[in-house]
Amino acid sequence: MPHAFRVVVPARYASTRLPGKPLRDLLGKPMLQHVYEAACQCGAQQVVIATDDERIEAAAGGFGAEVCMTSSEHASGTDRLAEVASKLTWPGDDIVVNVQGDEPLMPPALIDQVATDLADNPEASISTIATPMVAAGEFFDSNVVKVVTDRAGFALYFSRAPIPWDRDLMLEGVKALPIGIVPLRHIGIYAYRVDYLLRYAQMRTCPLEQAEQLEQLRALWYGERIHVAEANQRPGPGVDTEDDLVIAEQLLQAKRNGNV
Questions:
Q1: Nearest-CA neighbor of 228 among 161, 123, 148?
Q2: Helix (H) or strand (E) holding 116
Q3: Cα separations (Å) of 92 from 47, 131, 179, 191, 198?
Q4: With a threshold of 0.85, does the pTM exceed it?
Q5: Which domains does the chain have, with CATH numbers?
Q6: Taking Cα atoms as reference points, which of 97, 105, 21 lies closest to residue 59?
Q7: What is the C-alpha separation between 116 and 135, in angstroms, rounded?
Q8: What is residue 228's three-state secondary structure?
Q9: Chain segment 183-200, per-residue pLDDT in tens
Q10: What is the mean pLDDT of the chain?
Q11: What is the rounded CA–CA span in Å between residue 232 and residue 224?
Q12: Confidence of residue 1 (pLDDT cuts 50, 70, 90)
């Protein structure tokens, strides 16, 4: 049985590529409701939607979700989680999973997995997941975040660049996966300990985080440990664009019809 944990779904109305994204319709429901319902199917003792927007608060209340209103000044979802943990006075050793509000196809099993993995690795402040890459295209895609770990599964570095870099292969100008190493694609779901979230809120951004635009690099910069487990199943795609919305609706419909 997994360790007791909570889920927070940070949801912002503003989105440059897809305004009002959490409330966009998917099969007759706001996208956020699909995320919330999936989170409620995992083993969490509590699921909270964190937002700074009254429209999202009203919609979430309409489908029965617990909502925590947070500041509009947060630079990241992790900062928003830290405010929720502080406002709701959760104990420092509690585990909190961050499920993004634009992930309507996130399997509940992966939420359970990251929570359990953090409980099983007491020296880690954060747990996350990754999947093996099998195509050179995603390895060289800067929108795909890669992670390199040590032999115990602790993150050494995250990057938008193709890592690990196979020097001899790349010197020949070959765009291929490294030889003898399976590169890992990072999946953006995290479990945190509350005491880390409260520390994170006091940490300044770091140069690596700013350069790569990856907030998990702040944790590594300050010496926190991140454990990376191989995902026990592949999640569906997130939603950032109108095209993504169409794909998500097709996949949800197929799931509803029992075709996936």
A1: 148
A2: helix 108-120
A3: 18, 30, 43, 13, 8
A4: yes
A5: 5-255 (3.90.550.10)
A6: 21
A7: 29
A8: strand
A9: 999 999 999 999 999 999
A10: 91
A11: 24
A12: very low
